[in-house]
């Protein structure tokens, strides 16, 4: 079945206009909030059996992954891939758009470009997380931002030819010094000036950086291309003190039709966290949709 039809069919099968996915890394990773990693066949089938509609793939380097096998198993489990995470290229290889070494910047841009055909295949958004980098010693903030604009324009233009969108994630101050909160992301959108470039919002980072999570969601309107959920402690939703009913209502009111993707610590273990999250979020989303 053509992928576009598969996506429509799976989308139509669900009544929610906000479907649920969860992060799965194709390999073991240092990034602790990739809830599942490794063991492709077992993990995808578990994710589907827990009731998730989609799986967000965290891929360090597409050239190291058997994409045909991945696609086969995604389809076998009737899952959708809403987004592809790319941050391990920073975490494990040190690639970034804002490194003082031009060779490193070039390889970082090439790495993101190499995700484009994969994203096209799954009709997924490409996530620009920590591959944007941090402010390195000896680099001024304006210089880092110029390099970032250049890289984002080049990747967005290349992605546009295949109908692929890119989403930059504002990430809290303890992980990067570049683009921590939503207003900075919205300013970045104005500089990049490509309509396939938008934002990924993550409730964990927003809880640290935003004066009001709901206000910041409203400020983004239709530029929210993807959405991550974790509670205030980065455990599964329901384990901390965030008000998910209020947050997801604000998201729904923007007209967001994408996935709400779980990216949280495997606490006490991945299976328990994934099940607790879906059991907690589904009734909240159903209530929001019913009241619309
Ligand atoms: C990735 O989506 C994320 O939220 C960051 O915390 C990665 O370090
Ligand atoms: Mn995130």
* Tally of structural domains: 1
Q: What's the gyration radius in Å?
A: 18 Å
Please name the CATH architecture.
Alpha-Beta Barrel
Number of strands: 9
| CATH-defined superfamily | Divalent-metal-dependent TIM barrel enzymes
CATH fold topology: TIM Barrel
H/E topology pattern: HEEHEHEHHEHEHEHHEHEH
Shape: globular
The residue ranges in which pLDDT falls below 50 over 5 or more consecutive positions are 1-6, 8-15
The end-to-end distance, rounded to whole angstroms, is 33 Å
State which percent range the strand residues make up: 5-15%
* Ligand identities: L-Erythrulose, manganese (II) ion
CATH class: Alpha Beta
Individual helix count: 11
Q: Find the structural class using helix and strand composition.
A: alpha/beta
What proportion of the residues is helical, as a percent range? 40-55%
Strand order of the largest sheet: 1-3-4-5-6-7-8-9
Write down the overall mean pLDDT. 94
- Tell me about the biggest sheet? 8 strands, parallel, barrel
């Amino acid at each position: 079945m053509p992928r576009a039809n598969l996506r429509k069919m799976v989308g139509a099968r669900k009544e929610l206009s906000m479907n649920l996915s969860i992060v799965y890394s194709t390999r073991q990773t240092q990034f602790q909030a990739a809830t599942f990693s490794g063991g492709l066949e077992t993990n995808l089938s578990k994710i589907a059996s827990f009731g998730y509609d989609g799986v967000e793939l965290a891929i360090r380097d597409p050239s190291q992954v058997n994409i045909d096998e991945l696609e086969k198993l995604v389809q076998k489990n009737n899952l959708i891939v809403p987004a592809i995470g790319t941050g391990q290229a920073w975490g494990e290889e040190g690639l970034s758009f804002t490194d003082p070494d031009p060779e490193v910047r070039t390889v970082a841009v090439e790495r993101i470009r190499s995700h484009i055909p994969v994203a096209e295949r799954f009709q997924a958004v490409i996530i620009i997380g920590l591959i944007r980098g941090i402010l390195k010693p000896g680099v001024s903030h304006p210089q880092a931002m110029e390099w970032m604009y250049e890289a984002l324009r080049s990747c967005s233009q290349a992605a546009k030819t295949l109908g692929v969108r890119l989403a930059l994630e504002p990430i809290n101050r303890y992980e990067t010094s570049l683009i921590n909160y939503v207003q900075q992301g919205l300013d970045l959108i104005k500089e990049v000036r490509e309509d396939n470039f938008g934002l990924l919002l993550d409730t964990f980072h927003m809880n640290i950086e935003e004066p009001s999570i709901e206000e910041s969601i409203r400020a983004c309107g239709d530029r929210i291309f993807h959405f991550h959920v974790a509670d205030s402690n980065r455990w599964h939703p329901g384990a901390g003190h965030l008000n998910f009913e209020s947050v997801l209502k604000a998201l729904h009111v923007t007209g967001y039709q994408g996935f709400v993707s779980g990216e949280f610590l495997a606490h006490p273990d991945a299976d328990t966290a994934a099940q607790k999250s879906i059991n907690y979020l589904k009734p909240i989303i159903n209530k929001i949709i019913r009241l619309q």
